[in-house]
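In response to the reviewer comment on reproducibility (Comment 2.3), we provide here a single inverse folding case reported in full, input and output, so that an independent group could reproduce the run without further information from us. The structure tokens appear first.
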């Protein structure tokens, strides 16, 4: 037994008596005043000494045991335990930044920002009601694991939507719900065991896709695009052993041209002959602002070589982190195993909300409204820029959701983009889309969050940088 412990307790304190007693004992153990293998007083003895209930002592002792400062030995009492090794304190390292191309997080979009829908036109009230209903449905559901392929109601709605909007006939069994585009790309890489193969990618093209492929051990060859899209013959010449091509045939990212029918036929013929896979990133495919959108490349696939990837990031909200991949029937079993083991679908409540949004026709109506809105905002931005555009800068608007400013000089577009951020603007440099030396330099100006009230001032600030 140890001598009576001197433990001061304050009955008027907010902190409970058990917490006060625990803290006093823990401090005494840690600083050595209660040495290892010392037997602590019994619950009854210490309770009597301090004038508290035995249950209060029990709570304090149990916490000491939980934190491995003491050990209970039944009728033999409670003893001070052998100390654990002190924790290793590492010096703080440098802050880890997301890749430079990664979209900004946790703040409203800025003027000219790419890759985000119109913040002011989002149907927030309607969406909040749908999300609340989905949350109630999810809470009332059985406490079991969700289908790793995605909720059946959402997969059915996606299959029906693709048939109508993208000309792609598929079944719900071919649809896998993913954590956005990145999740779909990762699922494809795992399911098809693509690590170590050679791949084609458009030049210019999405830098995060390129990084994802190389991170997975895939050797990427940049294949140039022209007015008809990917130069398939050049790809065969540059990388004849490639077994994967990643393309944006609907609207090329970032230049905006649609892959022509002859090039589509050539790409599918190459995939069949080479036993290769084609990943179709349906980047803005459903947001064609003029005329009818070209059908999905996968709609022409008769040999089961095309994987169609879409997401709701640019049509509903990026915060959902919700995408999907449509796989050929001959690959369903591979993707089912990969999804179950490595990449199950995202949170169920969000899936139910999107399924509800689609089933009641809200999604297609929302897309129609956004096409009209984005078309008018693109036209407004073009007119505002043309009036004050400096010499040496050309304007183009082939892409659905961006206006391109192409430099006829050697201005550093990445430096200009950084300077624009200080003005609260977020244009994107064109040069960073190129893997090799950029063919063009310039700025990509997103049109989705152009404000009629502020566009003149925003353009004036940008033009002043271009003139400097």
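Designed residues, in position order:
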């Amino acid at each position: 037994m140890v001598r009576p412990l001197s433990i001061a307790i304050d009955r008027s304190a907010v902190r409970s008596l058990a917490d006060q007693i625990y803290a006093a004992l823990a401090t005494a153990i840690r600083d050595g005043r209660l040495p290892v293998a010392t037997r602590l007083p019994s619950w009854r003895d210490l309770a009597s000494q301090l004038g508290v209930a035995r249950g209060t002592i029990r709570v304090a002792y149990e916490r000491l045991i939980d934190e491995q400062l003491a050990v209970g030995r039944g009728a033999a009492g409670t003893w001070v335990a052998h100390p654990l090794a002190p924790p290793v304190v590492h010096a703080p390292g440098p802050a880890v930044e997301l890749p430079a191309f990664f979209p900004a997080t946790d703040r409203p979009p800025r003027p000219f920002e790419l890759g985000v829908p119109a913040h002011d036109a989002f149907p927030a009230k309607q969406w909040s009601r749908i999300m609340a209903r989905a949350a109630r449905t999810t809470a009332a559901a059985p406490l079991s694991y969700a289908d790793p392929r995605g909720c059946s109601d959402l997969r059915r709605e996606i299959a029906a939507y693709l048939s109508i909007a993208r000309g792609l006939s598929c079944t719900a069994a071919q649809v896998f719900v993913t954590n956005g585009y990145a999740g779909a790309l990762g699922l494809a890489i795992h399911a098809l065991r693509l690590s170590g193969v050679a791949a084609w990618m458009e030049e210019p093209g999405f830098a995060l896709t390129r990084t994802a492929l190389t991170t997975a051990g895939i050797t990427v060859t940049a294949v140039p695009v022209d007015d008809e899209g990917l130069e398939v013959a050049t790809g065969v010449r540059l990388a004849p052993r490639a077994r994967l091509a990643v393309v944006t045939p609907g609207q090329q990212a970032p230049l905006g041209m649609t892959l022509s029918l002859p090039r589509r036929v050539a790409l599918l013929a190459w995939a069949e002959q080479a036993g290769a896979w084609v990943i179709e990133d349906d980047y803005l495919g459903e947001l064609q602002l003029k005329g009818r959108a070209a059908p999905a490349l996968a709609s022409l696939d008769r040999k089961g070589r095309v994987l169609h990837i879409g997401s709701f990031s640019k049509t509903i909200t990026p915060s959902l982190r919700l995408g999907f991949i449509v796989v050929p029937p001959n690959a369903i079993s591979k993707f089912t195993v990969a999804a179950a083991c490595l990449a199950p679908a995202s949170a169920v409540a969000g899936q139910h909300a999107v399924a509800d949004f689609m089933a009641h026709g809200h999604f297609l109506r929302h897309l129609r409204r956004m096409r009209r809105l984005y078309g008018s905002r693109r036209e407004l931005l073009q007119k505002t820029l043309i009036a004050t555009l400096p010499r040496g800068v050309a304007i183009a608007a082939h892409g659905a959701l961006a206006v391109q400013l192409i430099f006829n000089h050697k201005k550093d577009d990445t430096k200009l983009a950084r300077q624009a951020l200080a003005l609260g603007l977020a244009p994107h440099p064109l040069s960073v889309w190129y893997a090799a030396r950029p063919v063009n330099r310039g700025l990509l100006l997103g049109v989705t969050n152009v404000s009629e009230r502020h566009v003149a001032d925003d353009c004036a600030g940008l033009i002043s940088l271009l003139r400097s």
